[in-house]
From TrEMBL:
Protein name (Swiss-Prot/TrEMBL): MmgE/PrpD family protein
Recorded family membership: Belongs to the PrpD family.
Record GO terms (molecular function): lyase activity
Signal sequence coordinates: none
Pfam family, one: MmgE_PrpD_N
Highest taxon above the source species: Bacteria
Domain MmgE/PrpD C-terminal: 277-448
Segments forming domain MmgE/PrpD N-terminal: 13-250
Length: 464
């Protein structure tokens, strides 16, 4: 399976890393962080069960059939791949989940449903599930980072597109595949990896399905490989491999990133946590607006105009099309809207899940101010390492007020602590469950290495 120059292909090197990875080989701080990322994802999944699109998704999955696999926060079970699709939606649905900045990928939203679902089916230990989850995270984040932000430029959502490759190796690991079969799984999933950014045009719900689809596709690919199905050997560097096909001439990939530091440098430590429920690209601008609110307490009619400086590569995601961004049609539109989020921060000094409900979206003061919010490309941005943001307010009495956030809160250079993640978990989980119930979930997840996945599953499938 080697290339003509005898250098192992990327898929071979990634397969070797993932299949050989054991919990004992992972530094304790990385394991601890990984468990907290899982806890964050599960807290979000429980919070999402309260939203209508979650019920609609689960109803559709039930119509396709039931099965033995756990759905977070639900007593009813589904077939394995349908449960993965549902759990991915539950983790990612609020757009409040973690983000790897260089890969621009919500990696837990696919890695967790895949590792959990297969570990439950295979009767794996918590330690085995944790190792598979970490393998998926390390692979997906690196594979995403190779594109250097290029996937977004051509309209592909990296979370669905790239998550499939890390999940293919997590599935291969938990299913006990050989290295050759794990290589085949990556080649097979190349034909399944997908995720369109068209949802940005009208606030469609499709983005929420992407991580679960990545997990389900990866499981399909690994199962085919287990039975001898042949996939392309050069999934990444091939003439029609991932980067040539999905980037075309819009970006220059750095293939060395895919395998750099495997087993020595841990990308989990570079995963950013979200302090607000919106696209990560908006966070620094939101915090800048909130800081200006706290300092100046301006009324909406005192503001002449607002200019927000954002990194150039995020404009298409959170600033355009301008008309949609200035008047979000629904909560998803709002989560990707610099005008709405900045206007909310300036007037209310916050951005929370409550600012995504129907009443908040119709707030006339916020919508009026959003019409006066414009954007500029930030020439000093350090994107993608940091998702920078600056808000400049011109008042009707000609004052110029500005605040800049050069490093977004929650990023690897300004990280949320594990204690902060636990606090966020409780805030989200307790929207639908009691404190005692949330305590049980926290103890099970943070004690994962000492538990069976079936024990964890029993706790998680109790209804929210």
């Amino acid at each position: 399976m080697n290339a003509p120059n005898d250098t192992p292909r990327i898929s071979t090197r990634l397969a070797g890393f993932a299949l050989d990875l054991t919990v004992d080989a992972i530094p304790s701080a990385v394991r601890e962080r990984a468990k907290h990322l899982i806890l964050d994802g599960i807290g979000l999944a429980f919070a999402t069960t309260a939203f209508g699109y979650a019920d609609m998704t689960l109803a559709a999955m039930r119509e396709l059939g039931t099965g033995p696999s756990t759905v977070f926060g639900k007593s009813g079970r589904l077939a394995l791949r349908d449960a993965m699709l549902a759990n991915g939606l539950l983790v990612h649905g609020l757009d409040f989940d973690d983000t790897h900045s260089r890969g621009v990928i919500h990696s837990t939203a696919s890695a967790l449903p895949c590792a959990f679902g297969l570990a439950e089916r295979e009767g794996a230990s918590g330690a085995q599930m944790l190792a598979a989850y970490i393998a998926a995270m390390e692979v997906s984040t690196r594979v995403g980072a190779v594109a250097q932000g290029g996937f977004h430029k051509v309209g592909f959502h990296p979370t669905g597109l790239v998550g499939a490759f890390g999940c293919a190796l997590a599935a291969s690991k938990l299913m006990g595949l050989s290295k050759d079969a794990a290589v085949e799984a990556q080649g097979i999933v190349l034909s399944m990896a997908s995720g369109s950014m068209e949802f940005l045009e009208d606030g469609a719900w499709t983005k929420r399905l992407h991580p679960g689809w990545a997990a389900a596709s990866a499981t399909t690919a690994a199962t085919l490989a287990k039975h001898g199905y042949i996939g392309p050997g050069s999934a990444y560097e091939g003439r029609y491999g991932l980067y040539a096909l999905y980037l075309s001439d819009h970006a220059t990939p750095d293939l060395s990133i895919a395998t750099a530091g495997l087993g020595e440098t841990w990308e989990i430590e570079q995963v950013a946590l979200k302090p607000i429920p919106a696209c990560h690209f908006t966070h620094a601008s939101s915090d800048a607006a909130i800081a200006l609110h706290r300092e100046h307490r301006l009324a909406g009619d005192a503001i002449e105009k607002v200019v927000v400086r954002v990194p150039g590569p995020v404009v298409d995601v959170v600033c355009e099309p301008v008309a949609n961004k200035k008047r979000p049609a629904n909560s998803y539109d709002a989560q990707f809207s610099i005008p709405y989020i900045v206007a909310t921060g300036l007037l209310k000094g916050r951005f929370t899940l409550d600012d995504l409900d129907a009443g908040a979206l119709a707030d006339p003061a916020v919508l009026a101010l959003a019409q006066r919010v414009e954007y500029e490309v930030d020439p000093e941005s350090t994107f993608p390492r940091h998702y920078t943001g600056e808000v400049i307010v011109t008042t009707r009495d000609s004052r110029r007020l500005a605040h800049r956030e050069a490093i977004n809160r929650g990023s690897s250079d300004r990280p949320m602590t594990n204690e902060g993640i636990v606090e966020k978990f409780y805030d989200n989980a307790q929207r639908v469950v009691s404190r005692d119930r949330a305590d049980q979930i926290r103890e099970a997840v943070l004690g994962l290495e000492r538990a069976s996945v079936e024990q964890l599953a029993g706790i998680l499938r109790q209804p929210a």
